[in-house]
Here is the input.
Amino acid sequence: MTNRVDELESEIAELRAAVNGLTEELVETKARVRELEESAEADRKAAAAAAAAGGTTTKSDDHVEVVEQPEADEQVDPETASEGDNTAESPEPTDEADDAEPEQSDIIVA
Here is the structure.
């Protein structure tokens, strides 16, 4: 019986050591997560302040190319639009257009 008691006490000591080790790791992990969350919050606040101050790019939008679009009120004249500008709508086809060859300005290539 003494051998079995010694064996159980040994197992209990090992389990206590494991629990203590895991508890320490948990406390350290929680502290690290808290630090990372505070750092991320500070980064978000700094990015928001920078964007409000001057509209500078951040890591998340530095790959975006800004393309200015004409406002909805503005009318784009297809004859005066540049050749590379595909924002102009093609003119509405008429019955006469069926008989005639389409002109280069009527074809829009995507």
